[in-house]
Amino acid sequence: xxxxLEPIPPVTELETAIRRRRTFAIISHPDAGKTTLTEKxxxxxxxxxxxxxxxxxxxxxxxxxxxxxLEQERGISVTSSVMQFEYEGYHINLLDTPGHEDFSEDxxxxxxxADSAVMLLDNRRGVEERxxxxxxxxxKRRIPIFxxxxxxxxxxxxxxKLVSDVESDLGIACHPVTWPIFRDxxxxxxxxxxxxxxxxxxxxxxxxxxxAEVRVGSLENGExxxxxxxxxxxQLVHDIALLDAAGHPxxxxxxxxGELSPVFFGSALTNFGxxxxxxxxxxxxxxxxxxxSSAGVVQPTDSAFTGFVFKIxxxxxxKHRDRIAFVRVCSGRFEAxxxxxxxxxxxxxxxxxxxxxxxxxxxxxSEAWPGDVIGVMDRGTLRIGDTLSANGExxxxxxxxxxxxxxxxxxxxxPMRRKQLDSGLRQLTEEGAAQVFxxxxxxxxxxxxxxxxxGLLQFxxxxxxxxxxxxxxxxxxxxxxxxxxxxxxxxxxxxxVASGPGSTLLFDSKQNPLILFQDAWSLxxxxxxxxxxxxxxxxx
Length: 540
Ligand code: G4P
Prior knowledge:
Strand order of the largest sheet: 6-11-5-4-1-3-2-19-20
CATH superfamily of the largest domain: P-loop containing nucleotide triphosphate hydrolases
Oligomer: single chain
Structural class: alpha+beta
CATH class of the largest domain: Alpha Beta
Shape: globular
Bound molecules: guanosine-5',3'-tetraphosphate
CATH architecture of the largest domain: 3-Layer(aba) Sandwich
C-alpha cells in the first residue's frame, strides 16, 4: 500500500551540521565576569574538567610566551580567540573578544562573525559604557542579544529595576526567562519561566570549581516549596505573576530580529543558573544565518563553501613565525586542502592545514561547517574582510573599518634595522592592528613612518611586538592631532589646505592623501570652505 503522505525530504549532513551550530560572542564591560563565564561554559561543555584551569593556563602561557607578558603586565586580554565545544548535541563556537576598549576595532570585526551575542551585566552596575557601545554594534547588525545578569550570589540591584533599566537605557524589550530566587537575601535558585521549573542550587564546597548541583521541580512541588520556605516561595509566586501580567511576553520572532532580549540571572563564580541559561540559550539562539553578499543572500545550506576572513593574527606562537587568518564559514562544507577562489585577487588558493582553536591551543581539522571558525595558514595573501569561495566571485559585505584616532611617529633607535621595521609595520597593518602613513606620496621609506591606531594602547602593543618579534627598538612619539580625513580633489588644493596651522599632510600605503587636523573645529572650518574637496572618514 502506498502512503498518502508526502515523502519527508532527507536531511543532509550539511543541514544537520547547521542545525547543531551556535556561534556567539559575549559582550560586556571589563570586570562583569566574562573570563569567569567563558571558563564555566567550557566546564559545562566538558572542554575543561575543573574550573580555574583557564586562568591557570593563562598564567602558564604568560610564563612561556613573551608576547603574553604585555597582557599580563597590563592585566588585560589583548587578542581574541575562538573556543569550540559540544554541549547536549550542540556544537558551540564561542568567539572571545578583547575586553579593553582600545581594541574595539578587533571586537567589532569579531562580532560580524557571530550569529548572536550574550550581553553580560554585573548585578550592581547594570548597563555600563562599554556594554552600551558593543550593544549598539550588535543592534546595527540586528543579531539576537541575550542578557545574563551576573554575580547574583552577592546583593545587587533589584531584578525588576535592572530589567527596566536595560529596557530604557538600550531601547530593547526584555523578557526574563529565568528569575532569581532569594531566601533570606541569599541567592538559592532560579525559576525558568519557559519550562515552569524551579532550579534550586546546593552550595558546594568547591567554590565553583565543579558544576552546580541542582534540584529541579515545579512551582507546586511540595518538597521544593518546603526547601524554599514560605516567604521565598510566596515572593517567587508574586514576582512571576507580576512578570506575566506586566512584562513583555516571550516572542521568538522579535528575539531573532534583535528586538527582544531574553534575560537570565545567575552567578558565573558559583555556577548558579548557568545550566538553565545554557540550555535555553542553545534552544533559542539561531543557527548560522544567511549572509548578504555582492551576489545576493548566501544561505548556509548552499552547497558551495564560502567564508570570510575577520581576523589575522601573526606570531601567535613565537616559536613558529606564522600567520593565521581566522575564517568564518558561511556556507557549504569546508574540507582541508580545498582549492578556493580568493575573490579580491581572483587567484586560486589551497587551504592546507586548517586548524581549530581552544583558547590558544590548536588542533588540525579535516572539515568544518557553516558557523565554524577555522584558522588557515596565510603567507601574506589574505586581508581582513577577504572572501573565500569554492565557487564564484561573490564577496561578503559589512566588515567594519574604523579610521584611526591616534597617530604617532615611529622613531627607530638603530637606523640599520630599518628593513626589519618596515616588515614589522607591514605585518601589523595587514593584521589590521595599525595603519602606516608617510609624509611623502612617492617615498614610502621616508625617515620616520607614522602609525595610526584606533586605541592608544595599541601603540604599546606595536612597540612591544616590533621589539620582541622583529628585533627593532623604537620610540613612539604621539601627535596631538586626532582628526584624519582622506581628501579627494586637485593635489594643489589639498597641499594648500594641509599647509594651514595644525594640519599635516600624510599619505597612506596606497599613496592616497589625507590631512590630519588638530581638532574638530579646524576640520569643520576647512570642510565648510573647501567645497571643491571631498573629505572621507575612511580610505577611498
Ligand atoms: P572580565 O573578564 O569581564 O573582566 O571579568 P572576570 O571574569 O575576570 O571577573 C572579574 C571579577 O569578578 C573577578 O574577581 C571575578 O572573580 C568576579 N566574578 C565573576 N563572576 C562573578 C560572580 O558570579 N559572582 C561574584 N561575586 N564575583 C564574580 P577579582 O577579585 O577581580 O578576581 P579573582 O581574584 O577572583 O580572579
